[in-house]
Design brief:
Blueprint: E1 14-16, H1 27-48, E2 58-61, H2 62-68, E3 73-75, E4 89-92, E5 97-100, H3 105-115, H4 121-128, H5 133-142, E6 147-149, H6 153-158, H7 160-166, E7 172-174, E8 197-201, H8 206-215, E9 220-225, H9 235-238, E10 242-246, H10 252-263, E11 267-270, H11 276-279, H12 284-290, E12 295-300, H13 315-321, H14 324-332, H15 344-365, E13 372-376, H16 377-385, E14 409-410, E15 415-418, E16 423-425, E17 428-429
Parallel strand pairs: 1-2, 8-9, 8-11, 9-10, 11-12, 12-13
Antiparallel strand pairs: 2-16, 3-15, 4-5, 5-6, 7-13, 14-15, 16-17
């Protein structure tokens, strides 16, 4: 057995259901394969831990897998807030297109400061029209904001960052070490991750998908945010199965709490850019000292090497940078950028991240060294870009009543229904013990 290095082949798992996203790229195939990677690595872990006599079969529902790449929760009798700030979106420049990501207040402030205009879409559009795309991108990034000029695939492949990302592995295994897995008598074939403590230091969207996935098989996930943090419109989707706490890592008392949590952690998942944790005083050596037996997985937007390694980014921006939105435009016969129908880079990277954690845990259980895993949205974009849509099939429709679990989920905002799980093993059914809840709503401690 070896560590996960690529998407699984179709013959390694059973596929049910039908329907696919309409796209220039094989988005549905990416969904089924990345979720299958979780199932296969979990099956190997179950076998390694002797929770079952052999690795259980893995079954993926194609329709549900594709739908989970969208939004998994439907509120009943109330509305979710919008995912997007009114200013966020694509704008035409003097020589092309650019996307501004302004969901966070400080990112919106940075973009408006560069443009010198009010937070009104018409005013932003007028200001952007006088800029060259790459010049505006550089100016917004330098001001502390996030933006991405639209590039073609050829331009990205020639770009220094595009070349750096293409040379990186899909999962960068690094810093191997021996890890002693703690005894987890709660773990069973039905709930194989019960008792596993996962410390979640991630934000929108890939990292939370990874930890939500681990919670679906019994892991105890504790997410730590800064006090007052919120992600309106998305938290109800990705806080499922987790406890959501808050700590200020610039304050001594909260740092002590964090270090105590880390010392008792089995899995650390974080989405900080290279060097960000170091600046908080938690570099790799310190994390290893505080948590000598924790498996670690990390992700960033633009890869771990190259001139943009420390650049902030999100799925929609990476699609613009890496040529996906431009290729989609050609495929759709559109004048405007044409993104993927869902934030597939986020979701696929999240599932691959969860699979990498399971792969490292299985290696540790076999007595092998367990390295840390690093993934990026940009590297997942390279994977998807090599998968042109060729399969014929029924176009995916919006979720129907039968796609949802009939049991009501009483979230921290109100009742609703969750899509049925897209992944099941012959020994276990993916489900969550806790409903979705608000940020900063739980105390920062491990139960028991």
């Amino acid at each position: 057995m070896t560590l996960l290095a690529a998407l699984p082949a179709a013959g390694q798992f059973r596929l049910n259901g039908s329907g696919r996203w309409r796209s220039a790229f094989a988005v549905t195939e990416l969904a089924t394969a990345s979720i299958a990677a979780v199932g296969l690595e979990l099956a190997r872990l179950i076998e390694t831990l002797h929770l079952a006599p052999s690795a259980p079969d893995v079954v993926i529902d194609q329709r549900l897998a594709a739908l989970w790449f969208g939004y998994s929760f439907r509120p009943d009798g109330w509305k979710l807030p919008s995912l997007w700030d009114p200013v966020a979106g694509n704008y035409e420049t003097a020589d092309g297109w650019i996307r501004l990501h302004t969901n966070l207040p400080h990112h919106r402030t940075a973009a408006l400061r560069v443009l010198g205009c009010q937070a009104e879409r018409d005013a932003v559009s007028e200001a952007v029209s006088h800029w060259q795309s790459e010049a505006l991108e550089s100016a917004v990034v330098s001001a502390g904001g996030v933006a991405a000029a639209m590039r073609s695939r050829a331009e990205w492949q020639e770009h220094p960052q595009g070349r750096a990302v293409a040379a990186e592995p899909l999962i960068d295994w690094n810093l191997p070490r021996s890890i002693r897995l703690g005894n987890r008598p709660q773990a069973t074939a039905e709930r194989p991750l019960a008792g596993l403590r996962v410390l979640d230091l991630t934000r929108v969207l890939a990292g939370p998908v990874a930890t939500r996935t681990l919670a679906g098989f019994g892991a105890d996930v504790l997410r730590i945010d800064p006090p007052g943090w919120d992600e309106p419109g998305v938290i109800a989707d990705i806080s499922l199965g987790k406890r959501m706490a808050a700590l200020d890592l610039t304050k001594g008392e909260d740092r002590l709490v964090f270090e105590s949590l880390l010392a008792q952690t089995d899995v650390l998942v974080h989405g900080y850019r290279p060097g960000a944790l170091d600046r908080l005083g938690y570099d790799s050596a310190t994390r290893r000292k505080l948590a000598p037996n924790a498996v670690e997985a990390a992700l960033d937007a633009y890869g771990w090497t190259g001139p943009w390694a420390d650049r902030r980014g999100f799925d929609s921006l990476v699609q613009m940078s890496a040529g996906i939105a431009d290729a989609g435009r050609d495929w759709a016969g559109s004048r405007d950028p044409h993104p993927l129908p869902v934030q597939a880079l986020d979701h696929a990277t999240g599932y691959l991240m969860a699979a990498a954690v399971l792969s490292a845990l299985a290696a540790a259980a076999r007595g092998e060294t367990a390295p840390s895993a690093r993934l990026s949205l940009a590297r997942t974009a390279e994977l998807l870009a090599g998968k042109q849509q060729t399969a014929e099939g029924m176009e995916l429709t919006m979720p129907a009543e039968q796609d949802y679990v009939q049991r009501t989920e009483n979230t921290g905002w109100g009742p609703g229904h969750r899509l049925a799980a897209p992944l099941n093993l012959s020994t276990t059914r993916m489900h969550w013990d806790l409903p979705a809840t608000r940020c900063c709503s739980a105390p920062a401690f491990w139960p028991g």
